[in-house]
Specification:
With 575 residues, the protein is an alpha/beta fold. It folds into three domains: 146 residues, 2-Layer Sandwich (Nucleotidyltransferase, domain 5), CATH 3.30.420.40; 196 residues, ATPase, nucleotide binding domain (Nucleotidyltransferase, domain 5, 2-Layer Sandwich); 195 residues, Alpha-Beta Complex (DHBP synthase). The chain is 37% helix and 20% strand. It contains 20 helices and 23 strands. The protein has a nine-stranded mixed β-sheet with strand order 15-23-22-16-17-21-18-20-19, with helices on both faces. A five-stranded mixed β-sheet has the order 3-2-1-4-5. It has a five-stranded mixed β-sheet with strand order 8-7-6-13-14, sandwiched between helices. A hairpin with a 2-residue loop joins strand 11 and strand 12. Helix 6 packs across helix 14, helix 7 runs antiparallel to helix 11 and helix 16 crosses helix 19. The mean pLDDT is 94.
């Protein structure tokens, strides 16, 4: 059985393909279009997935669309009916967008493949947004039975959904309806703090450790816990939901200011981008982060009480909050947590396919997904041809000589662009498309932020650590394949790896497994043998753009930044 999953006409458009139960490929459309969070029909991602699976759309049995406009339709109408005048333009926008799910996608797939549109429609199955999230977490996990939480801004009129997963079945327990959303709450404060763009929430998470959570009690007036373990927003602090919370312009997700005049009156005027970050802003970021964490823990504690299970799977945009994720086993009764590599909306394509595969078609579950390497790949021969065409000087080394040369460059303070194997699915570079540096260098963070990433100075960098050494460096020993959790670094190790130790003494680790990432593992191991430190500083290979996807993009990024070395598989380019 072949199932193609699609997240289309929505932020982080993507595609994923499964053949006889196994995921063959998954990739975001932004990697091809070179526009972050690209929203539209993922034609290039679909073409890539079909090519990787060596099939045509005619061969595909089911096309799962991670969206169902009919979900909670009556509740949508009730909300719009409360303010019909304000809602009119938004309703037109949403209806037009909803039509594109059932009509445009079929047309676009027909045009892409040459298959008759009516035949394409027969293959299509629509899967509700949050059910897709639930499936992306549970059916990819190693758990036979687990509690599941999907939590984000909004999708198909739901913002939060809880469930129990057992074998091939997901049973939904409860959901919270739009506009009561922890994602909306976090985004509104993100905007108030002067970060206005879609996807800027991670900046607040990075800023939070520089402040003190002084305003948590005031913020809890905005987000209120209910007796049944869920939450509601005080909507007077927010933009009217009748006016809409998100739009799309030229395939870009646009989020208007979500905060109301009351929020500004209560917490201060929104910071403009040219205004300095004051201690107040840092304390507010810390307070928003803490209030968010406490709400997540409340949800999970209630979910545990309801299910009695000790394992939980989590997905949705809020599941990208790695700081909160790292605290779950220490602040709730859950003992094991699985989060997929693409917990955000790109993972909808994978989740929709998994939902059809297991929930609807009852295919047996496969091994747990611990590898995010499902994207583009290039061999040495094609890379050599490209470099020769560009008249770029390079040397090709075998693996042993390559690891020696790269680690020597790192030891001498160099910064490496590392392009290896298949690209990662999700927002984190995991040794496929990474920029690497020596974690022992005190100045590495400033060099990377200023000269290469060109981003805010408070943003942290992550440690990639050989999985056998986690217990030596971190207070919590866990398998973290997708850099999805932040843990405290042991006190005696902080001074040894300052470049990857955040200001609060934590690190967002990636545990590197030789079975999953053999070349990346071996590189770190050579660095360990030379230094005694089994860690490399790892950040995504990009500069204010989507992560590089091809040798052309990698070379362009290398040339316009101050990296010292570019490694494209076994081809090395040095300054």
């Amino acid at each position: 059985m072949i199932i193609l999953g699609i997240n289309a006409h929505h932020a982080d458009s993507s595609a994923a393909i499964f053949v006889d139960g196994k995921m063959i490929a998954a990739i975001e459309e932004e990697r091809f279009r070179r526009i972050k969070h690209w929203a539209g029909f993922p034609s290039q991602a679909i073409a890539f997935c079909l090519q990787e699976a060596n099939v045509t759309l005619q061969d595909v049995d089911y096309i799962s669309i991670g969206r169902d406009p009919k979900a909670k339709l009556f509740k949508k109408i009730l909300l719009w009916a409360k303010t019909p005048v304000k809602s009119l333009s938004y309703i037109k926008n949403r209806i037009g967008n909803a039509k594109s799910v059932s009509l445009d996608i079929a047309k676009e797939l027909s045009a892409l493949s040459g298959i008759n549109e009516s035949d394409v429609k027969k293959k299509m199955i629509q899967v509700e947004h949050h059910r897709s999230h639930l499936a992306s977490a549970f059916f990819a996990s190693p758990f036979e039975e687990a509690a599941i939480l999907s939590i984000d801004g909004s999708g198909d009129f739901t913002t939060t959904m809880t469930a129990i997963g057992k074998g091939n079945n997901i049973e939904v327990l409860e959901s919270i309806d739009f506009p009561h959303s922890i994602g909306v709450f976090y985004t509104a404060f993100t905007q108030l703090l002067g970060f206005p763009h879609y996807g800027d929430e991670y900046k607040v998470m990075g800023l939070a450790p520089y402040g003190e959570p002084k305003y948590v009690e005031e913020i809890k007036k905005v987000i209120q816990w209910t007796k049944n373990g869920l939450f509601r927003l005080d909507l007077s602090y927010f933009r009217s939901p009748a006016e809409g919370f998100a739009f799309y312009e030229d395939h870009l997700p646009i989020v208007p200011p979500l905060f109301s005049a009351k929020m500004e009156a209560s917490f201060g005027k929104a910071r403009q981008k040219d205004e300095p970050l004051l201690q107040y802003h840092k304390d507010m970021a810390a307070s928003v982060q803490k209030a968010t964490e406490e709400t997540i823990f409340q949800l999970l504690t209630y979910l545990h009480k309801k299910t009695g299970l000790e394992k939980v799977c989590i997905a949705g945009g809020v599941a990208q909050n790695s700081v909160a994720n790292g605290k779950i086993t220490r602040n709730t009764p859950f003992k094991e947590v699985y989060i997929p590599s693409a917990g955000h909306d790109a993972g909808i394509s994978m989740g929709a396919a998994l939902y059809v595969q297991h929930q609807l078609k009852r295919l047996p579950r496969q091994k747990a997904i611990y590898s995010a390497y499902t994207g583009s790949r290039f061999d040495n021969a094609s890379i050599e041809r490209f470099l020769e065409e560009q008249s770029v000087a390079f040397e090709r080394l075998d693996n042993e000589a390559l690891y020696d040369k790269v680690t020597e460059c790192l030891l001498n303070g160099g910064v490496i662009g590392w392009f290896n194997g298949r690209a990662e699915f999700g927002p984190r570079a995991l040794g496929g498309r990474s920029i690497l540096a020596d974690p022992r260098r005190i100045d590495a963070k400033d060099i990377l932020n200023r000269k290469i990433k060109r981003r805010e100075s408070f943003r942290p960098f992550a440690p990639s650590i050989l999985k056998e050494y986690v217990d030596e460096y971190f207070d919590v020993n866990d398998v973290v394949p997708f850099m999805e959790k932040v843990f405290p670094i042991k006190e005696e190790k902080k001074s040894q790896i300052p470049a990857v130790t955040h200001v609060d003494g934590t690190g967002r680790l990636q545990t590197v497994d030789r079975e999953i990432s053999p070349r990346y593992y071996d590189l770190i191991d050579v660095f360990r043998k030379k230094t005694g430190v089994p860690i490399l500083l790892n950040t995504s290979f990009n500069e204010n753009e989507p992560i590089v996807n091809s040798p052309e993009q990698a070379l362009a990024c290398f040339l316009r930044t101050n990296m010292d070395m570019l490694v494209l598989e076994n081809c090395v380019i040095s300054r």
